[in-house]
Write a structure and sequence with these properties.
homodimer; 483 residues; alpha/beta; Arc Repressor Mutant, subunit A; Aspartate Aminotransferase, domain 1; Aspartate Aminotransferase, domain 2; 3 domains; 8-stranded mixed sheet; globular
């Protein structure tokens, strides 16, 4: 608890959030009776009034109902009554993604501190273990003053690679340090991976929708993208994927199997295995993005598709940007049979990754506390996602559909078709609220009435108000069809 | 002086090295009488014996001769008697550079601490201002504990860009902070620049020879390279460059105008201007690498070609890797009319550059001392280059030609044609000496009897012995033609 002391939310909120998690996981189901106030205050070692505050918060959110003379009962929360976005099959034609005109605008608005940051995939700075990382950092600087006076040439710092390898069984893998190359964040890992397996003009299969950074990176390398219909239950449609491989000579397939961005699903193991088997049968490299894998909303970290790789054809990459520190710029990649090529390209692209940060993360992973920290972070993020869903359920017009993420902290929102998300995005920006329009998650211009909402920030009045404003803009749009 | 106290070379050597610099710059010329020992000891506030030690060192290197009853006089140093490499015109046909097989090997040997590092372009860790940087770093961590909890999205930290802009008049430029984008080192800047102006298959004009990182980066992007004959007096042959532009529709031209790697020259201003004028006339973007610009062996920092840019067609990039810290991974680029595209590509390639290092460098540049530090570093490096040249002059077989760098710390060596540098490279590696074979500096397989020697490391017995070993390997090769 010490490391996050400055930023801890109030006790009652911690209790309430942990109970929403129990509900989300099914440990508490609608109709269940929750502990009495007396019991709760003893269990959690808090005062009766704190216990009451927690229950009142949960009641106001629609998680609990008070039954006279009987106590508090779990009810179906408001937000669970909101339907999820509909599955929409993308057009499966390879597409040269054109440089997205609004990317520069997005960057600009992400850089502007005046905007309420519901757009870019960032979390509140105070959620990261800054104090702990700084302690380690100072220790290293004292112990090893020449920490940054050399290049850590590819594959990068051995101590860090060893720690990543040590944790790989959590992903269902068993890496050796030599399998791993350190990169400047996940997106560099993706770029290196794409360049190692495909050339400009080649066709890359991706999920529809998928993270715009993946789409745009492939596009910027001159690759064409084919979107495979993807749904939150079983991921990519494998029949369609196979048809695309057959027809378009797909050179690689990029997927986010865990805590998909923006859909939020965690792909069940059997689908991961089927995906690996299919791509292996066609000898198509599978590039797996696991950036939000550690942030799946479940106790046991989900396995990766890489766990089912028998041929070295799966390239797995991740980073510490969403877990420890976005500004550290440390990611990693296990490139299987493409290892040498990825390392060569890393040398030619950025020579090495930052030395000091590699050392700090290695020591953070080694000295323990990572799992405890991760659990706490996950709990916080789940609570934030629920708060946003709840507010949206309250404020947004009939017909709004909101995803129920099983991982990560993004929400994928579908509006009635008459709402144009790009116009909504601009109207919101005029009110200093930054969101992301759905179209940027597609190579084919789909998701015109979708947006992505980032729930990485610690919930507060500000976000509640911003969502209310957004809901009003939606209503106006629906009414006038002019916004 | 304080910041480098731990790593300062002995006083007599500092004096001697500053005098070799005066010789190199022509402030002292052969035949000039140097101050008497008494005068020197008073000037420099050192003991008579230190002054004597300095003169004896200079005498042993052939810089001074003692004339009885008269004092010490500057003589033509041994190493100045060595001829420079001959100008060799490369074949000017566009070439798709093939992935260089020995790149992986080079990386491996650079990572091996057992090897004497005359290969990769690195300097001794103790030459960098580590103590000073660490002080600033600790201050920032204390003052701003959340230093790395956000992305510094492109163009990067404003405070750093402001400091770079402030120093731009030294390069003959006048940038605003908005002109500059921060990158993960210089090579990322090059990659972004190339991608912003050219596509796979396009022809890029480069100097022959040129830094292999530039060659290989272009190759890894699928671009073809045409080498333009380049000599240390006037740089690229502009007639040949114009012919190549006419014939091959060159899409960009990459040059190192200051402290060329590996040739070591500083291009005079009139040739810089002529180069800019020519490429502008043909509307060809000129990408200028200024990584070693601050390490030119002259007091006044040389201007860049960018200084003569009237059309935003010159892209200038540099980094702090050779000056402050290789492990920081901070470089920058001024991309003129390609600014937006470079920033977009930066976002898609690595999102952001390390936050903490941007802050540390900004403060280092702001709080002063950079120029003083730079001057000291330059003096040390010039001394090291001279030490290597001197040892080579003593040991190496007749017919060896050695460059006289006007900047940076690389030597370009030409052996008699019967010596195969690639074989020499392998033989040296077997003796744990790492050097770079000349062929990797060419797209056309030229420079088979050339090597590059890195003089970045503080001179010691170890290097003297390594050069002696290298000389013996050369002699053996020359004798047997078998090595």
């Amino acid at each position: 608890m010490a490391t996050a002391a400055r930023t801890e939310s109030p006790l009652y909120l911690q209790i309430a959030e942990s109970m929403t998690q129990q509900v989300a996981r099914g440990a508490l189901r609608p109709g269940d009776r929750v502990p009495s106030l007396r019991r709760l205050s003893r269990q959690r070692r808090v005062s009766m009034s704190t216990a009451l505050q927690a229950y009142l918060w949960l009641e106001s959110r629609g998680y609990l109902e008070a039954r006279p003379q009987s106590g508090f009962y779990v009810r179906t929360p408001f937000s669970a009554l909101i339907p999820e976005p509909q599955f929409e099959a993308p057009k499966t034609q390879p597409k040269a993604v054109t440089a997205n005109a609004i990317m520069a605008e997005l960057m600009e608005s992400a850089n502007n501190p005046a905007n309420i940051p519901l757009g870019a995939g960032c979390a509140s700075p105070e959620l990261y273990p800054n104090r702990r990382l700084n302690l380690i950092l100072r220790r290293i600087v004292r112990r090893e003053p020449e920490h940054s006076a050399r290049y850590d040439f590819p594959p990068g710092l051995e101590a860090l690679r060893r720690q990543i390898a040590r944790r790989s069984p959590d992903m269902g893998c068993n890496f050796s340090p030599r399998d791993i190359a350190v990169t400047c964040g996940a997106l560099e890992a993706l770029n290196l991976s794409l360049r190692a397996v495909a050339k400009p003009g080649d066709v890359i299969a991706m999920e529809g929708p998928t993270y715009f950074g993946i789409l745009e990176s492939a596009a910027s390398l001159g690759m064409r993208v084919i979107e495979i219909p993807t749904n939150p239950q079983c991921g990519m449609d494998l029949n369609q994927l196979e048809a695309a491989i057959r027809k378009h000579r797909v050179k690689a397939c990029v997927v986010m199997t865990n805590s998909h961005n923006p859909l939020g699903y965690v792909l069940p193991d059997q689908y991961k295995k089927a995906l690996v088997d299919l791509t292996a049968r066609w000898n198509v490299p599978l590039i797996e993005d696991d950036v939000y894998g550690d942030l799946a909303h479940q106790d046991l970290r989900p396995r990766t598709a890489k766990a089912f790789d028998r041929n070295g054809l799966v390239i797995l990459y991740s980073s510490f940007s969403k877990i420890l520190s976005p500004g550290y710029r440390i990611g990693w990649v296990v490139a299987g049979r493409f290892r040498e090529e990825v390392e060569r390209l890393k040398l030619l692209t950025s020579v090495a990754s930052p030395s000091l940060q590699q050392r700090v993360i290695a020591e953070f992973l080694e000295t323990g506390g990572y799992d405890r920290y991760l659990k706490r972070l996950r709990t916080r993020l789940v609570g934030q996602v629920e708060s946003v869903r709840h507010a949206m359920a309250k404020y947004f017009p009939q017909g709004t559909r909101i995803s129920r993420p099983a991982g990560g902290y993004m929400l994928w929102i579908e509006f009635p078709p008459q709402i144009n998300a790009l116009k909504l995005y601009r109207a919101a920006l005029a009110e200093n609220i930054s969101i992301l329009p759905g179209t940027i998650f597609s190579a084919t211009g789909q998701y015109k009435n979708h947006i992505r909402i980032n729930c990485g920030h610690v919930w507060s009045e500000i976000y509640d108000r911003a969502l209310l404003t957004l809901a009003r803009l939606c209503e106006k749009a629906q009414a006038s069809r002019l916004v």
